[in-house]
Amino acid sequence: MDRRGFLKSSALAAGAAAGVYALAGRAPAQDAPASAAAPEAGNKPAVLKISSQETRVPGKSLREKVEKLQKWGAAGVELSANIKDRVAEIKEAVKGTGIAISAVCAGYFQLIDPDEAKRKAGAQRLKELCGPAGEVGSTGVIMVPAFNPHPQLPPKEARKVLVDILPEIGEAAHKAGTRVLMEPLNRGEAFFLRQLADAASICRDVNSPGIGMMGDFYHMFKEETSDRGAFLSAGAYLRHVHLASRLRNLPGQDDRSFVDGFRGLKMIGYQDFCSLECKPKGDADTEIPKSFRFLEQQWKEATI
Ligand code: MG
């Protein structure tokens, strides 16, 4: 077996072990108590609930975009970070459509900045965003600890301050009826936090119902040896997924397969959303629904 093959089988084995715990509804740590962060995953058959970031769908208003998503068979819409003054508009936009708020893509909050005052201010901003996110029923608020150009502590210290600061953020998120979701990126964008298993281990250590994580197929292609192993490692901490092709276009617009990753989602009984974060090639009104049909087909092919 070559090195890549070895790594892939190791990732699958580790992921499968984590997945067994996830299916049993508990965190993959030998002595960890049953986690309030992971109570229900694995108890029901997985579902493919397709969503899209609002900015990817053409339309003059959020309502128009939501109506298109509904017509194309989506289940959710993912919002940009600027939701604070849009709560009424958002609620009105989804009213009567059956479309839910899949996530709020919020980004960077200085949580591993070397300056403690900046970390605290960032945590406060993130907690404040959880209020409107909970009000519109969002699954979670997506957060990146730091992008490469941002000032940041060395990795070991960064992980420690993150684990120390996340419980109070998690508590605020949980009270608001939502979660904060860490997003692992690829090394070109963020060297700190690149693999789903790493994010899951932080969730395990924080052990808060208000802290979860997500996976993004685009970044996973660059950082993971196995999509399935990565999702199994994430287990019940996985609360959101971003969809993009290998070149970050729509799923189906290049050779990126989603089947192996979808197998992983089925194995952990995934119940949350899979949301487009990509640039459509061609006419978006034609290409996005085509991509949704492609994803449904890939989901069917992902037999377990
Ligand atoms: Mg993403």
Describe this structure in words.
The chain is of the alpha/beta class. It has a single domain, classed as TIM Barrel (Alpha-Beta Barrel). Helices cover 44% and strands 14% of the residues. The chain has ten helices and eight strands. β1 (49-53), α2 (62-71) and β2 form a beta-alpha-beta unit. α1 (3-23) packs parallel to α8 (227-234). The longest helix has 22 residues, at 155-176. The two termini are 24 Å apart. Residues 183, 216, 242, 277 line the site of magnesium ion.
Outline the secondary-structure elements:
Elements: H1 3-23, E1 49-53, H2 62-71, E2 76-80, H3 87-94, E3 100-108, H4 116-135, E4 141-144, H5 155-176, E5 180-182, H6 196-206, E6 211-216, H7 217-223, H8 227-234, E7 238-243, H9 259-267, E8 273-276, H10 284-301
Parallel strand pairs: 1-2, 1-8, 2-3, 3-4, 4-5, 5-6, 6-7, 7-8
Bound molecules: magnesium ion.
Task: Give the structure's gist in a few sentences.
The protein is an alpha/beta fold. The protein has helices at residues 3-23, 62-71, 87-94, 116-135, 155-176, 196-206, 217-223, 227-234, 259-267, 284-301; strands spanning 49-53, 76-80, 100-108, 141-144, 180-182, 211-216, 238-243, 273-276. Helix 4 (116-135) packs parallel to helix 5.
